[in-house]
Design a protein that fits this description.
- This protein is 38% helix and 21% strand.
- By secondary structure, it is an alpha/beta fold.
- It has two domains: 208 residues, Carbamate kinase, CATH 3.40.1160; 148 residues, VC0802-like.
- The strands form three sheets. Strands 3-5-2-1-8-10-11-9 form an eight-stranded mixed β-sheet, sandwiched between helices. A five-stranded antiparallel β-sheet has the order 13-12-14-16-15. A three-stranded mixed β-sheet has the order 4-6-7.
- The two termini are 45 Å apart.
- It binds aspartic acid.
- Aspartic acid binds next to loops.
């Protein structure tokens, strides 16, 4: 039985109108048999997400304050949906139980998980499906990742059962404590739940329904109406996500990637749009057609550079430099070097109040001729698997930056040649993204 797992994000479930769209999408393809839901999100920019309200309830309860106000907002949101869809809501009882648990000192994870739990109850009632509570079958380890026994438990539920299942996203149980001890993934974690369900069901496809028509080539806050990427590889999407593109939860890629299941990002509000396919292997057509997949970037980086004559002749300089960072628990992003100098780039927040002591340690360990710390840097990643076999990509990137007068501070290209990392002053960041985007699309 070929099945598609469909995951709907918070904006796709924000009100009764969105629930109706979800039903129409599921009914349009008989293979859509496993539905994974987030908690209802914002209906308008100034609205509140159910998950945020639940955390608020927990914070108030934990300090002995009255949590009735946010809990009432949550009750009303769910009741409004149930009334509009004429469902005899199973949610009221679940929220009464939550109120009792909050008063009894339940965990923040348990409180936050009730958004997805109630949403799945409501959606299962609306679609006539079987609800799956991941608090009983999705085991989460100490590092926040899924534990392997999960796949067996979910497979036992799905088996060859042709029923429609509705599973709550975002949470599971603490693998160290056992079923029932609710533990959540990181925020936005319903993407991970969908990926886990897809892998357990050996789905033909994992559809991730959201409010954009796919992954964009560049940040829409910096580039007006950027193009949608029709096809992108798992490797490329990881690079884009790591470098700040809000595409898809990073950790959600692993379960499906290992199983070779493609993901399609779709827009609940425009189901006719093709969206973006994330695939284990790019098609020959995509490789022939595209020079780069997209551009991502982040601000807020700092760079520590040391220079010392004959540095390249001395063994262990990099080891000492990185060792000093390690002692202070600082992880670094890149480490470009030249004959007599070496630099490390890290998020400025990592240095925070440690800068003085870190610098003193490096002086002590390396005795450099010069040590410079620079802040306010931005990093850009130009991502594309086709890069390694196409001549002239770097020329196009740097030509575009030069024409805009952007001074390139750092260049880093890994051996995998799937991206070029460029460091620029924070003030040049927006100009740089736009210049590169235009060079490849204009
Ligand atoms: N509801 C959770 C959050 O807001 C998880 C999710 O939406 O994926 O983070």
């Amino acid at each position: 039985m070929e099945r598609i797992v469909v995951k709907f994000g918070g904006s796709s479930l924000a009100d009764a109108g969105q629930f109706r769209k979800v039903r129409a999408i599921i009914e349009a393809d008989a293979r859509r048999k496993i539905v994974v839901v987030s908690a209802p999100g914002k209906r308008r920019p100034d609205d509140q997400k159910i998950t945020d309200l639940l955390y608020r309830c927990h914070t108030l309860a934990a300090s002995g304050d009255d949590f009735t106000a946010p809990l009432t907002v949550i009750r009303e949101r769910f009741q409004e949906i149930a009334t509009a869809l004429a469902i005899n809501s199973p949610v009221a009882a679940a929220l009464d139980e939550l109120a009792a648990n909050l008063s009894a000192g339940c965990s923040a994870d348990f409180a936050a998980s009730r958004g997805e739990y109630c949403c799945a109850l409501l959606m299962a009632a609306y679609l006539g499906g079987e609800m799956i509570d991941p608090g009983q079958c999705v085991a989460i380890g100490g590092d926040g990742g899924v534990l392997p026994q999960t796949y067996q438990s979910l497979d036992n539920r799905f088996a060859d059962n042709p029923r429609l299942f509705v599973m709550a996203g975002f949470y599971g149980y603490d693998g160290a404590k056992g079923p029932g001890a609710v533990k959540t993934f990181s925020r936005g974690g319903s993407d991970i739940s969908g990926a886990i369900a897809a892998r357990a069901a050996q789905a033909a496809l994992y559809e991730n329904w959201t409010d954009t028509s796919g992954i964009l080539m560049a940040d829409p806050r910096l580039v007006y109406d950027p193009k949608v990427i029709p096809e992108i590889s798992f490797k490329e999407v990881r690079e884009m996500a790591y470098m700040g593109a809000s595409v898809f939860h990073d950790e959600a890629i692993l379960p499906v990637r290992e199983a070779g299941i493609p993901i399609r990002i779709k827009n609940t509000n425009r189901p006719q749009d093709p969206g973006t396919v994330i695939t284990p292997k790019l098609s020959a057509a995509t490789l022939a057609r595209t020079e780069i997949a997209g551009i991502a970037g982040k601000q807020g980086f700092s760079m520590i550079s040391v220079a010392k004559t004959m540095l390249h002749h001395q063994a262990g300089i990099a080891h000492k430099l990185l060792g000093a960072l390690l002692r202070h628990g600082i992880s670094f992003e890149h480490c470009p070097s030249s004959i007599d100098s070496i630099s490390v780039i890290m998020e400025t927040s990592q240095l925070a109040d440690k800068e003085e002591t870190v610098v003193a340690d490096i002086h002590h360990d390396i005795e450099p001729d010069v040590l410079v710390v620079e802040h306010d840097l931005a990093l850009l990643a130009v991502v594309g698997e086709g890069m390694s076999s196409t001549v002239g990509i770097a020329g196009k990137v740097f030509g575009a930056l030069a024409r805009e007068g952007v001074n390139v501070r750092i260049i880093n290209q890994g051996a995998s040649e799937i991206n070029i990392i460029i460091g620029v002053a924070a003030d040049d960041y927006e100009k740089a993204v736009l210049a590169i985007y235009m060079a490849f699309t204009g």
